[in-house]
């Protein structure tokens, strides 16, 4: 059994902890922007393949006191790096956190890289090249007060980059946040789902992947753990085969996405097609003012502009009022959720929220508003 650390969006630690428990993790302990857990190698692969709400899975290899850069260099040199990294492997080092003496993450990462390649040169006369974009081995260094944790990154690029979304609107939700919202509202996949402001389709696509039990990692080309010296190819192939078999052929209930902009709907169609959902999700070009409830009951969820990046706040006030009017007049029997980062705009909806859930969208403090529509 090994210790792992899943990095997550701030505020989603409990959601990720629940997901890790469902995937079979043990000794789960939420922390700030992450969750500690324990499991075997199969669990490491399974979490990378199946997790919908986490960014990456780190594998800690050493922890030590680290008050300054000299001690950092010395301690990094004590790690036997040829167990993890060959000179013909490329590498990248990222650093998070800091302390009084190590307060510049780029400098800290450079010091770690220097310690690693100096050891390689001393042992073999060769050293790894740095590849920031697509390294064979990614190393994460986290400094908290005077403690340093060195980890291998088993994921590589962030797991929110599923691989299906090449086309994006102007201010898209991260896939991990979209999936977390579905968990937070406890959406029952037997209920119809609608996003009336769907943009490039992230919410409907994540809803469909969840409802069809499709592992989001199936769309990725590569994970960093495939470059680990102890990579178990047969185990990985077995987990991939199990994931393929567990997919459902048909949605339990309809999923719709609509938007007024034909260009972003083209992007949504393209993204859905990349993950084989083009015949599962029903996308339609619809003005919000013309929107009608497509079923007697269901869950509506949307992420309208907040005025942070998209749209003028005054114009957006009209949009939020229209949302409230459409909910009230045409969506009796539904439950609606609106994610917003603007409290003044939220008031324009004109309906009493039955629940207000604090959410971070990146660094922006937002609220997920729940409306029971009777």
From TrEMBL:
Residues 43-154 form the THUMP domain. It comes from the Bacteria. The keyword RNA-binding applies. Pfam families: RlmL_1st (PF22020), THUMP (PF02926), UPF0020 (PF01170). Keywords: Methyltransferase, RNA-binding, Transferase. Gene3D superfamilies: 3.30.2130.30, Vaccinia Virus protein VP39. InterPro entries: RlmKL-like_Mtase, RlmKL-like_Mtase_CS, RlmL_1st, SAM-dependent_MTases_sf, THUMP_dom. One of its GO terms (molecular function) is RNA binding. This is RNA methyltransferase. It comes from Chroogloeocystis siderophila 5.2 s.c.1. The lineage of its organism: Bacteria, Bacillati, Cyanobacteriota, Cyanophyceae, Oscillatoriophycideae.
């Amino acid at each position: 059994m090994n210790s792992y650390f899943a990095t997550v969006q701030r505020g989603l630690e409990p959601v990720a902890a629940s997901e890790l428990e469902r995937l079979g993790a043990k000794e789960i302990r939420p922390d700030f922007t992450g969750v500690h857990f324990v499991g075997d190698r199969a669990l490491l692969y399974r979490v990378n393949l199946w997790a919908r709400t986490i960014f990456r899975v780190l594998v800690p290899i050493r922890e030590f006191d680290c008050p300054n850069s000299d001690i950092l260099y010395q301690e990094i040199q004590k790690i036997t790096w040829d167990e993890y990294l060959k000179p013909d492997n490329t590498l990248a080092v990222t650093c998070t956190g800091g302390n009084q003496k190590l307060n510049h993450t780029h400098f800290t990462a450079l010091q770690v890289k220097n310690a690693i390649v100096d050891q390689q040169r001393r042992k073999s006369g060769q050293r790894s090249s740095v590849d920031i974009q697509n390294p064979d081995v990614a190393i994460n260094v986290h400094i908290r007060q005077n403690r340093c944790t060195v980890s291998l990154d088993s994921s590589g690029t962030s797991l929110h980059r599923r691989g299906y979304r090449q086309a994006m609107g102007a201010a898209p939700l991260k896939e991990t946040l979209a999936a977390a919202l579905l968990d937070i509202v406890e959406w029952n996949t037997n209920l119809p789902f609608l996003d009336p402001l769907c943009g490039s389709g992230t919410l409907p696509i994540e809803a469909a992947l969840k409802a069809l039990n499709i592992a989001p990692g199936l769309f990725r080309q590569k994970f960093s753990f495939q470059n680990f010296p102890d990579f178990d190819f047969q185990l990985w192939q077995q987990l991939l085969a199990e994931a393929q078999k567990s997919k459902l052929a048909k949605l339990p209930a309809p999923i719709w996405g609509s938007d007024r902009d034909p260009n972003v709907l083209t992007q949504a169609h393209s993204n859905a097609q990349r993950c084989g959902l083009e015949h599962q999700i029903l996308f339609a070009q619809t003005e919000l003012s013309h929107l009608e409830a497509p079923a007697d009951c269901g869950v509506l969820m949307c992420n309208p502009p907040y005025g942070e990046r998209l749209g003028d706040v005054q114009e957006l006030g009209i949009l939020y009022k229209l949302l409230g009017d459409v909910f009230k007049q045409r969506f009796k029997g539904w439950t609606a959720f609106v994610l917003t980062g603007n409290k003044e705009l939220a008031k324009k909806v004109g309906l009493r929220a039955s629940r207000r859930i604090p959410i971070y969208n990146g660094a922006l403090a937002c609220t997920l508003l729940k409306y029971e529509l009777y």
